[in-house]
Structures are given as C-alpha cells and as structure tokens.
Backbone:
C-alpha cells in the first residue's frame, strides 16, 4: 500500500484546531470551578504537559519508526499486557469521541436548534466525518490547513472588540487561596493538552520527526495563548459571575459590538464551533479507526470506519440521560484522560528506554 | 421513549444498509471477522440504548476505580 506523506504544519494545524474546539467554549467554566479567578495562571503552567507529551510521542516514534502507540505498546510490554492496555486506550478514545459529540449536540441544541432532535446532529456529524476519513489522511490534513486561518480570524473578530470592556481589576487578588487550586486547574486543563498524544497516529505519515517536534511545540504554544486570552477576557468581563454559565465564551460574544453596527456575532461562534468540532472529530475518529485496525491486525483501515462510527454514536448517548449527569461525570473522565493519554505514553517511553530499545533514525 | 419499536426498525434498516454497503469491500476472512467484532456490539448497543437509555455505561464502570482519585484531585 502506498504511504501518503503529509507535512508537519498540516498536522500541527489539525492538533491546534482539535484542542481549541471544545476548550474555548467549555474550559472557562470548568477551570473556574477549580482555580477560581486564578485560572489564567493555570493556563500559563498547563502547556508544559503539552510540550512533554509532544516530546515523548516523537521520542517513541524515533525508537519505533513507522509505527504507532497501539503497535509498539505490544513490542514494549509484551502481547498480553500491551494488548489489554491498547484496548483500554482505544476505549478511552471512544469515550473521548462520544464526549465531544455530546458536547457538540448539547451546545447546539441549547443555544440554536432547541426543537430539533439531537440524533440529527450526531448522525450528520458522524457521517460527514466518516466520509472525510474515507478519503484518506491527506484530505483531513489539508482541510485542517485550509480552515485554520478562517477559524483564527473568527476568534479574533469575536474577541478583539471586547478589549475595551475588560476590567483587569477583576483578576485581583492573585493567588487568594494559595497554589493548590491552580494546580487543580492545571490538571483539569490537561484534559485538553493530553489530546496531543493522538499525534502518534499521524507520525508514520510525517516526513521529518525533528520538524514535527518543532511544529508540535508551536501548536501547543498557540493553544496556550488562545486559552490564556480567553480566560483573561472571560474573567475580565464577567468576574465571578463566570461560574453561573456553562458556556461563558458564548455569553461574552453576545456583548460583542464592532463599530456600533455589527452585533449578534454569536452566529459566528456557531460557525467557529461547527468547523472546529468537525476537525476535532476527524482527528479523534481517525485515530480510533487506525487504532482498531492495528489492534485487530488489519493493513487497511477503511472497512472499519462505519462500525466505529456506530460505536461512537452509541457512546454519545450511553449513560448520559441529560446534560447535568454529563457535566457531573467530568472529573472521572478527566482522571481517565490523564491516565491513558498522558501518563501511559510516559510509562511506555520509560519502559522502552529501560528495555534498551535504540533509536533507529537520527532525524 | 415514544415508539421504541419504530426506532428499533429504523436502526435495523440502517444496520442492514451499512452491511450491504461495506460487505463487498471486505476481502479476506480476517477483515470480515474484524468488521463483525466492531459491528455486532455497535448494533446491539444501539438497540439496547433505545429500549433502555439508562443502562450503566463506561463512566459508571470507572466510578469505583477513579472516584477516590477524582475526589482527591478535583474540587467539583
């Protein structure tokens, strides 16, 4: 089979968009409940884990060129343990997929389409993503490269006119309750930064490890900047009232007025969110499909796309009867993401180093 | 649930269409087995979720394992 090559910049864009999509809207409220008004400090510390994760995944790819996490976890840990943890990793990825679809449909049906049954959005998003993945990894990467400037522009249009209304005194007092809430906020932000582990499924297609590492770091930095400014703007505008809203970013965009005649920019948020969730779904859905194909020992992943899509649609509804139950399960899911997406690759790298695998490419 | 039977019929119809669409692409026995490993649980789960949407899911299974850790690490 021909191996398609994609450029590091495209993957960096894809990862950036994937992480930004859900974090821009739901992170402010989630991190505010942990770190209070110091959450912007969490936003400065949290990217460290993103840098560590990118370096770990690239280092693992240097040890096992052309292979991904599911494949080399068997090589490093042996067949029984590697297969079991690989399956758990894939289940975690399925939960992540279900979660993001759930967030998407909850957001859309709460704010825009209040009467449409949510299955319409789940089915259309999954079907669209399935068709994108069927076209191959190159297509996904190119869509990401194409849409990233548009999405960044939308974010700037939404956020820049608000600069006059922020009041930085709302950020004071700094570190009112000490460092522990900030550390909790940082761990909670790791829900999003741990997503960079999915780089491992794209690395076999990328020409250069070194350039990928650099672009990965740029991607992490951009996410950190976007989150930092989102946090400063949301607290600066709303203060402690932030805790009362599920989507503070959505609320502040309703304030946005540019040049006194451009109002109702919340429709732009819809545009931003739909494009972004589509890219995120492309990334995570593709990773689950590739993961299952390697887990079951197939060379071609195309036949598995629709069954995995069906599973994702089931995971969207499974055991979440309403938004409140869904929101209360967030700490559990955060622990699960931290374990499988962040700690597991670190353990894998340590085990590979201890067992004496040598780097096979100097690049 | 208003009409569980209608929903089940719709799900079965979609499942059959999916199988018809994909089956020609499945060449060897290994691919067929892998396809069915994902397809059968998916359809079964979809039907189960229509009959009873509140069956405990993976997040509930995590609870005994991760709840102490989650309580220690996070406030909410």
Residues:
């Amino acid at each position: 089979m021909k191996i398609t090559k994609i450029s590091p910049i495209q993957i960096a864009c894809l990862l950036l968009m994937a992480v930004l999509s859900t974090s821009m809207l739901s992170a402010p409220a989630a991190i505010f409940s942990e770190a209070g008004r110091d959450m912007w400090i969490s936003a400065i510390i949290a990217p460290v884990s993103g840098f560590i994760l990118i370096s770990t995944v690239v280092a693992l790819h240097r040890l096992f060129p052309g292979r991904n996490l599911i494949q080399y976890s068997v090589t490093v840990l042996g067949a029984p343990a590697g297969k079991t943890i690989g399956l758990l990793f894939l289940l975690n990825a399925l939960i992540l997929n279900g979660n993001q679809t759930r967030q998407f449909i909850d957001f859309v049906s709460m704010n825009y389409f209040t009467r449409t049954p949510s299955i319409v959005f789940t089915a259309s998003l999954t079907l669209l993503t399935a068709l994108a993945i069927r076209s191959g990894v190159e297509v996904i990467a190119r869509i990401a490269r194409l849409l990233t400037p548009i999405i960044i522009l939308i974010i700037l249009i939404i956020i820049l006119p608000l600069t006059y209304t922020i009041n930085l005194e709302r950020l004071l007092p700094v570190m009112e309750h000490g460092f522990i809430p900030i550390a909790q906020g940082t761990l909670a932000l790791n829900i999003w930064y741990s997503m960079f582990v999915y780089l491992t499924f794209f690395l076999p297609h990328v020409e250069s490890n070194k350039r990928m590492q650099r672009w990965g770091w740029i991607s992490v930095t951009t996410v950190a900047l976007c989150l930092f400014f989102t946090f400063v703007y949301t607290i600066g505008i709303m203060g402690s009232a932030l805790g009362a809203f599920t989507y503070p970013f959505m609320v502040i965009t309703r304030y946005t007025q540019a040049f006194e005649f451009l109002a109702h920019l919340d429709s732009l948020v819809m545009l931003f969110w739909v494009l972004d969730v589509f890219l995120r779904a492309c990334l995570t859905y593709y990773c689950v499909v590739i993961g299952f194909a390697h887990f079951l020992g197939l060379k071609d992943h195309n036949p598995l796309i629709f069954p995995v899509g069906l599973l994702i649609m089931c995971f969207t509804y499974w055991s979440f009867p309403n938004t409140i139950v869904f929101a209360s399960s967030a700490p559990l899911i955060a622990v699960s993401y931290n374990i499988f997406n962040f700690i597991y690759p670190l353990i894998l790298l340590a085990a590979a180093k201890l067992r004496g695998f040598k780097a096979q490419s100097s690049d | 649930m208003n009409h569980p039977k209608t929903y089940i019929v719709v799900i079965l119809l979609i499942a059959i269409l999916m199988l018809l669409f994909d089956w020609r692409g499945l060449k060897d026995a290994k691919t067929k087995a892998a396809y069915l490993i994902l397809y059968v649980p998916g359809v079964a789960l979809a039907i189960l979720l229509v009959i009873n949407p509140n069956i405990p899911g993976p997040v509930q299974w995590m609870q005994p394992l991760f709840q102490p850790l989650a309580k220690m690490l996070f406030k909410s």
In short: Chain A is about 70% helix and 0% strand.
